[in-house]
Design goal:
6 helices, mainly alpha, 3% strand, single chain, globular
């Protein structure tokens, strides 16, 4: 569970970096069922998140899960963090900025999104995979 805790912490840090970048550069969420406005990204972080980060309440749950993995590792915490990683995968892939960034890579956004996606996959695999005996 130490590896999962490390991956989860790295993903949490990336999410906070993504939130900061999205607020500074006004990158709203843009998914199939809705689109935020550039001027309301900071406010939308409380409800829908941004184009580069999950909402604050999701990040709070992520932080709590990571802390529990470090302090008191339990199988249910491992699974919960794994499911969070799976949800992050879908969230990242739904965002229009992800598709644009992979079609037209840049030096700042593409590595952030690609790293977040890779860490999300690792969280899901480590958290939901069978535990070796």
């Amino acid at each position: 569970m130490k590896v999962l805790a490390s991956v989860s912490l790295a993903q949490l840090i990336l999410q906070v970096i993504g939130a900061r970048k999205a607020i500074r550069e006004r990158i709203p969420y843009d998914v199939a069922f809705g689109r935020g406005k550039p001027e309301s990204v900071a406010r939308d972080m409380w409800t829908m998140g941004s184009g580069l980060a999950a909402p604050w309440h999701t990040l709070a749950v992520h932080a709590a899960g990571t802390a529990l993995l470090i302090a008191r590792p339990r199988p249910w915490v491992r699974r919960a963090v794994g499911w969070l990683g799976a949800l992050y995968i879908f969230g990242i892939l739904w965002e229009r900025i992800t598709r644009e960034s992979f079609r037209h890579p840049d030096r700042e956004t593409t590595p952030l999104i690609a790293s977040g996606l890779a860490l999300s996959v690792a969280m899901a695999v480590l958290g939901l995979g069978r535990k070796r005996r």
